[in-house]
Design goal:
The protein has 191 residues and is mainly β. It contains two helices and 18 strands. Helices cover 12% and strands 29% of the residues.
Amino acid sequence: MTYPKISKFAYIDPLALVIGDCEIGKLVLVAPFAVCRADEGIPIRTGDYSNMQDGVILHALETTSQLKGNGSEFKNGFAIYVGDKASLAHGVQVHGPAYIGNDTFVGMQSLIFNAKIGKRMTVGVSSTITDGVTTPDNKFVPPGTIITTQAQADALPSRVGSPYEKINSAVLHVNQELTKDTMRRPFKNWL
């Protein structure tokens, strides 16, 4: 069995679950009832300064193909790769294979499965992105949208000028401060 790799500067809430080959970066907040479950021998990564809010689930099956890339961090591949400064809001489900780019916000109760979400994206509440699509960078997925084709992904509007344009920076600020504050408490991270 492979054990989690958790930055000493991350905060894992005592009611969260991180098992198996999960890599958690620095100043990451893993909130109550969030789950990073890589106990089937597949690696999952959550990058620096990101957050997994209450009830988020990251999981992939042992048979899931692993994402490959050009960077050294991809040398062994990942079933789920969450970039730096990404926010996974309450109740988000990410099932591998899945990639979520840097500085991306995924809204509450959304589902990402077998998809690649670009950088600086905003995914509105209760959206679904699946079926092998890749979303371009800097796009906005309106709340409740279901994306199952590449044509739908390519036609997404710009994040800039959308009602959610700056939501990720606000969410990151709050969650990073919360992470710093919880690390100052008299107890250490619990697993």
